[in-house]
C-alpha cells in the first residue's frame, strides 16, 4: 500500500477535526464547559464567566461539596434507627411461613435454616431533639444532633450481596465498568481548588477486633469510561497521604519542573498525532501531582488544629488513619475546595455476635460523626456541605445462627434499610418513610438508591437526567434509564 507524502498531516488534521466535533457536542450538553472549567485556571474562568452561559444541566445548587460516610457491610437498621418495640413480645417466633408468603430471596448463609427465629433488638431506644427522632443507645453522640439530621427509614435496593450492592450504591448499577458518584460530580462540576483533586477517598481503619471486614474494590471510586483524572484519589492512613510527595534525591524542584515541561511537550505532540484524550489526562495528572507536592503537607498537618478540635472529634482523631482522623481530614479537604470526600469504614457485616460487634463499630464512628457535623456548622460550612451516612443494604429481623436473649446475628436484607443525611438543603430533624412491623418491607415513601442519587445531584446543582456522557453509543448517566426521582420530602 502506497501512502501520499502528506499522509501524516492529513491524519493529524482528521484527528484535530474529530476532537473539535467531540468538544462542541459535549459543550452542547454542558459537559464540555465542565471539562473546560477543570482545565482553565480560576482567573481565566472569572474573566470569561460573564460571557459563558450556564450549561443546560445546571440548576440552583444547595451544596458546593459533599462528604459520604460509607459503612461497608451494612449496619442493622433494627438496632440503630428503625425502632420496633412490638417485637419484644415475639422473641423467637418462627418467621418461616411469613418469609414463604413474601417470596423472599434468601442468601446462601440462611436459606438452609430450618427455622427463622425473630430477634428483637436488645438495645434501648429513646426519642431525641425537638423532632423526637428514635435513636438507639448505641449512637449517643448522633442522638445529640437529632435535629441536624434527616433519617430515611425507607431505603431499598436491588442487591442482596455486598459487592453488587456496593456497586449499585456507589456507581448506580450492579454492572462493572460504570463511574462512581464522586467521579460523576468531579466530571460535572470540575475542581474548586487547582492544587487538590476534586474527589478524594479515605480508608478509615476499623478498630473493632471482632468485625467481619468486607473487601472492597477500586471500582467504588473509579472513573470507568469518564476521563481518568476524575477517579477518586486514595489518601493513605499512614506515612505520606500519597506516595512520592518528595522529589527523588538529587532532583531539585526546578529540575522537576523542567522535566515536566519537557514531558508535556512530548505528550502534546503525541496528542496532536493520535488524538487520544487519555494523553491529556496523563499530562493533567502529572501537573496535579506536582502541585500536590506543595499542598498536601500543609493539609495533612493536623498539629495545626487547636485542642478544642480533638475534644470535639475525640482522642482517636490524633491517630492517623482512624475514623475520627479521617472525619477531621474530610473537613480539612472540603474546607480547601475538594468537591467530594468519601470515607470508607468497613466491618459492619454482623452475621453473628451482633450485640458485641455492632456496639464496637458504633463507638468507632459515633462521636467523630457528631464532631464533623458540628465542626462544619460552627465554621459556616454545613449550609453548603452535604453529609451522607449509611451502608449498602439492611439486616434481617430474623436471626442467623443461634438466638439467645443476649446474642444474635442478622443476614443481608435489601427490602428496607436506614441512613441519614445532613447539611445543605436537607430538612434536619425529620424522619422520612416507614417500614412494616418487622422492618421487612417499606410501607410509606420508598426511596430507591437511584432516587438518593438523583437527590444528591440536584442538591449539588445538577439535573440528573441531563448530566450524561456518550459511551458505547448511549448517553450514560448515574441514575440510568429506570425511573428515579428527587426525594422532595427530605428537602428544606
Number of helices: 13
Low-confidence stretches: 14-50
CATH classification class of the largest domain: Alpha Beta
Tell me the fraction of residues in β-strands, as a range.
Answer: 15-25%
Rg, Cα atoms, Å = 24 Å
Largest sheet: 9 strands, mixed
Output the structural class: alpha/beta
Mean pLDDT: 87
CATH topology of the largest domain, which one? Alkaline Phosphatase, subunit A
Structural description of this entry:
This protein is α/β, with parallel strands linked by helices. The chain folds into 2 domains: 56 residues, no CATH class; 416 residues, Alkaline Phosphatase, subunit A. 35% of the residues lie in helices and 16% in strands. The protein contains 13 helices and 17 strands. Strands 1, 4, 5, 6, 7, 8, 11, 12 and 15 form a 9-stranded mixed sheet that branches. It has a two-stranded antiparallel sheet with strand order 2-3. Strand 16 and strand 17 form a beta hairpin. Helix 8 runs antiparallel to helix 9 and helix 11 packs parallel to helix 12. The longest helix is centred in the C-terminal third of the chain and has 25 residues. The radius of gyration is 24 Å and the shape is globular. About 8% of the residues have low confidence.
Amino acid at each position: 500500500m502506497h501512502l501520499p507524502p502528506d499522509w501524516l498531516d492529513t491524519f493529524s488534521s482528521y484527528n484535530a477535526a474529530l476532537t473539535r466535533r467531540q468538544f462542541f457536542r459535549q459543550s452542547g450538553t454542558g459537559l464540555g464547559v465542565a471539562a473546560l472549567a477543570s482545565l482553565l485556571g480560576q482567573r481565566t474562568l472569572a474573566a470569561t464567566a460573564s460571557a459563558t452561559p450556564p450549561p443546560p444541566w445546571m440548576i440552583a445548587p444547595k451544596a458546593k461539596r459533599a462528604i459520604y460516610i460509607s459503612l461497608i457491610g451494612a449496619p442493622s437498621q433494627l438496632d440503630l434507627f428503625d425502632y420496633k418495640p412490638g417485637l419484644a413480645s415475639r422473641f423467637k417466633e418462627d418467621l418461616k411461613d411469613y418469609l414463604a408468603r413474601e417470596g423472599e430471596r434468601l442468601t446462601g448463609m440462611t436459606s438452609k435454616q430450618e427455622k427463622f427465629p425473630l430477634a428483637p433488638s436488645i438495645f434501648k431506644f429513646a426519642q431525641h431533639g425537638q423532632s423526637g427522632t428514635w435513636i438507639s443507645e448505641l449512637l449517643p453522640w448522633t442522638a445529640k444532633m437529632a435535629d441536624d439530621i434527616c433519617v430515611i427509614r425507607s431505603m431499598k435496593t436491588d442487591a442482596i450481596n455486598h459487592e453488587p450492592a456496593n456497586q449499585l450504591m456507589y456507581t448506580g448499577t450492579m454492572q462493572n465498568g460504570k463511574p462512581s458518584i464522586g467521579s460523576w460530580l468531579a466530571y460535572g462540576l470540575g475542581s474548586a481548588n487547582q492544587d487538590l483533586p476534586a474527589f478524594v477517598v479515605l480508608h478509615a481503619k476499623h478498630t473493632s477486633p471482632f468485625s467481619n471486614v468486607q473487601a472492597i474494590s477500586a471500582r467504588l471510586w473509579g472513573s470507568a469510561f469518564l476521563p481518568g483524572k476524575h477517579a477518586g484519589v486514595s489518601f493513605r492512613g499512614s506515612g505520606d497521604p500519597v506516595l512520592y510527595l518528595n522529589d527523588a534525591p538529587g532532583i531539585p524542584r526546578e529540575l522537576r519542573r523542567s522535566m515536566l515541561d519537557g514531558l508535556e511537550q512530548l505528550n502534546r505532540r503525541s496528542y496532536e498525532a493520535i488524538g487520544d484524550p487519555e494523553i491529556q489526562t496523563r499530562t493533567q495528572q502529572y501537573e496535579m501531582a506536582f502541585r500536590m507536592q506543595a499542598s498536601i503537607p500543609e493539609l495533612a498537618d493536623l498539629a495545626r488544629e487547636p485542642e478544642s478540635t480533638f475534644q470535639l472529634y475525640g482522642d482517636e482523631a490524633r491517630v492517623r488513619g482512624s475514623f475520627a482522623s479521617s472525619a477531621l481530614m474530610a473537613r480539612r479537604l472540603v474546607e480547601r475546595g475538594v468537591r467530594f470526600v468519601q470515607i470508607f469504614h468497613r466491618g459492619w457485616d454482623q452475621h453473628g455476635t451482633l450485640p458485641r460487634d455492632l456496639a464496637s463499630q458504633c463507638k468507632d464512628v459515633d462521636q467523630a460523626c457528631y464532631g464533623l457535623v458540628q465542626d462544619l456548622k460552627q465554621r459556616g460550612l454545613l449550609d453548603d456541605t452535604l453529609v451522607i451516612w449509611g451502608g449498602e443494604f439492611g439486616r434481617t429481623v430474623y436471626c442467623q445462627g443461634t438466638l439467645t436473649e443476649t446474642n444474635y446475628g442478622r443476614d443481608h436484607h435489601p427490602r428496607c434499610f436506614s441512613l441519614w443525611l445532613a447539611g445543605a438543603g436537607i430538612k434536619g430533624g425529620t424522619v422520612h418513610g416507614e417500614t412494616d412491623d418487622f422492618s421487612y418491607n417499606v410501607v410509606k415513601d420508598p426511596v430507591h438508591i437511584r432516587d438518593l442519587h438523583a437527590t444528591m445531584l440536584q442538591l449539588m446543582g445538577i439535573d440528573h437526567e441531563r448530566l450524561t456522557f456518550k459511551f458505547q453509543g448511549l448517553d450514560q448517566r448515574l441514575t440510568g434509564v429506570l425511573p428515579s426521582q428527587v426525594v422532595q420530602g427530605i428537602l428544606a
